[in-house]
Amino acid sequence: MRTVISQRTGLAAWPPRIAALPTVLDHAEGVAGPLLAATVGERSLTMHAWKREARRMRTRQEERMVAIALPAGGSLEGIFVAGAPGSNQGAVIAAPHPLYGGSIESPVLNEIAYACTKAGIASLRFNWRGVGASTGVPSGDAADADADYRAALTHMGETLDGPIVACGYSFGAGAAVRVAFGDRRIDRLVLVAPPPAMLPPDAFEQLERTALVLVGECDSLVEPDRLRGLTESESAVRLEVIPVADHFFAAGLADISRLAAVWLGA
To answer: Are 32 and 25 in contact (CB under 8 A)?
Structure first.
């Protein structure tokens, strides 16, 4: 018999850890979690989902803020999550475009970080220069993005001595690919909605790395057919098209962590 916890019970009925959940949770298919249920109508949460959110809360408690040094001075704001005991693998996760609200608060970045945690891989997601607590002026320039990504990669490399997974969402996916060309510490890539226009010519052919590419079925900014044409002849690249999802993953958000975690070896 499936146990269902109705949200009519109210906040007081939730265990203290769940009652303390922040209003910006990453799951519930675009809903910000139990505390916002009243704004979206009647919802119920299975015990399985309850336990999943509890695990997520533990992950959040294990996060720590870090300062990532920039070569020219200043620093980037980052969030580091340790991997499984004994693991020396890491992942660097880049946000979408800084001039359009891209930051470490992106639910998509949270999903990638969660997938890494499930796979026992340490993760570092960061804010671009001029965003959040990062110093400098916000920039949409690819050279600045690559410099920021390299700084985060260097920080991770000084923390762990193992291979690194280069990850990014949209604008951040472009930076991950460009930096991967020149850094052999990167052995795999997880790219969510990478805009083809931001990728080097023949990027997937020349990378010589395994890669997971995720895109929404209804993404009008990064058309799935375009990515399919770029990746279908590359055996090292796996393309997953997430049903119903668009570029912003209001739907299909949970599929990002599910697919990435399996691909990463969870």
So the answer is: yes
pLDDT (0 to 100) of residue 61: 54
- Predicted pLDDT of residue 201: 81
Find the mean pLDDT for residues 232-259: 96
Q: Would you list the DSSP string of 60-108?
A: HHT-EEEEEEPTTS-EEEEEEE--STT---EEEEE-S-GGGT-STT-HH
Q: What one-character DSSP code corresponds to residue 240?
A: E
pLDDT, tens digit, for every residue of 101-129? 999 999 999 999 999 999 999 999 999 99
Do 8 and 34 have their domain in common? yes
Domain ranges, residue 237: 63-264
Asked whether residue 51 falls in the same domain as residue 139, the answer is no
Same domain for 118 and 184, yes or no, is yes
DSSP string of 167-184? EEETHHHHHHHHHHTT-T
40, 58, 76 — which closes off a domain? 58
CA–CA separation, 121 and 175 (whole Å): 21
My answer on whether 178 and 253 are in the same domain is yes
Helix 47-61 with 107-118: angle, nearest 10 deg: 90
Q: Is it the case that residue 228 has pLDDT exceeding 80?
A: yes
